[in-house]
Amino acid sequence: MNHSISRRTVLRGSSSIIALPLLDSLASADRGTESQQSPVRSVFLFTQSGVWMEEFTPAKTGTKSQWELSPTLEPLADLKPHVSVLSGLRHANAFKRNPVVNRHSQDNQCHLTAADLGRIPGVAARNSVSIDQVMSRSIGDKTRLPTLNLSINRSSISFSENGSASPSEHRPEIIFDRLFGERSQDSLAKLEALHRRNKSILDSVSEQTSSLNRRLGQSDREKLDEYLFQVREVEQRLAIEREWASKGPVPAPAGATAPKGVPKSRNEHVRTLMDLIVLALQTDQTRIVTFWLGEMGCQYPEIGCPDGYHGYTHGATGSEVARSKMVAVDRQRVDHFAYLLEKMRNVDEGGHDLLYHSMVHYGAGMGSRHGEGEPDGDHLANLLAGHGGGALSPDRHVDFRDYDNIGVPGNYAASGRQPLANLYVRMAQIAGCPVDSFVDSDGPLSDI
């Protein structure tokens, strides 16, 4: 007798429907031949405009009792056994000078792509695909949402195959509806009509593209290719949404309620979006999340930092006041990170918790300074939390810097350090994606 239970099994009471948690006995009915073991989830968090690394970086390296949290990382005290600090990973392409894109733009654009924006001759700046989208190729079809891209500022750290920014969402109410909203027959009919219309347009345009391309210059051909790529992406997203819409809504976990509007407080906004991240992962509606949680203009009056973070970063080198406020914001953002990890740790998945089955990366594309020609200027913040389903060994501080050259201007181009892209490759492999290389990587990162 087959006692398998569908992943979407619910408990029905007289007046409510409650989604089951992800139990070990849940069958692979919704996953084909996929293992019944809990899937590994990947979350990428980004904070813009740098981090004051002198207060962020732990003084000692090692594992467990051999190292201690730095002042900025103290909010992680109760979570230290689940967190690793990865210092000095090389992110070389993000520091290459570009005639039209400054370091502040490279900061977020290159964070998950590791791209040299000026790599194409004759093209001033062109991004490439981000690691979350690479991972989505392999596992995105296993969930309702291939990726969930969130932001506090409508911007994105996720980029498509042709380097275009993937849409992100900042409105909690809309996100909750995407996760748990029930479509009416009318909305399903409209979705079907939109799918057919878009497919018809794409087919018609594709037939004319070959002839048109022969009459266009190089620049116009690139613009047309980019446009067509975006049209195809819309078609793919509609096809996925159409398929999952036919399966019906996923019940929200017990106690989950739909948020109303966008919170006015920055802290409340960030944590509301983090609550939604946990709900999305808990109900297995996505296994890949990106979240831009801190921007350069963020203000935190509740902790005595009423001005934009960007101003503090420029004044931190010469002003103790500016530096103390920069550090205070850094610590506040790490506190948000701790909030997410604690929420994940409280989700039981039958023998282990959600954090055990996840990898949560927290990073920045800039350090204490802009990095161009400054001593150790490319020393970036990188934290990795979770156990990756048992593949990771957290509670360690590893420093990958080349100590023979620390303090030498231009050291950010040194080749003796492992690239940040190696971490992305390792994470992709743990998540079940057949990724052997990514941009400047030379293999999966070791010692984590």
Distance between the termini: 43 Å
Q: SSE string, helix = H, strand = E?
A: EEEHEEHHEHHHHEHHEEEH
Low-confidence sequence ranges = 1-35, 406-415
General shape: globular
- Binned, the helix content reads 25-40%
Count of DSSP E strands? 10
Largest sheet: 8 strands, mixed
Please, how many domains?
A: 2
The CATH topology of the largest domain is given as Alkaline Phosphatase, subunit A
Backbone CA Rg: 23 Å
SS field, number of helical segments: 10
Q: How are the strands ordered across the major sheet?
A: 4-10-5-9-8-3-7-6
Strand content bin: 5-15%
- Indicate the CATH architecture of the largest domain: 3-Layer(aba) Sandwich
Coarse structural class: alpha/beta
CATH top level class name of the largest domain: Alpha Beta
Mean pLDDT reading: 83
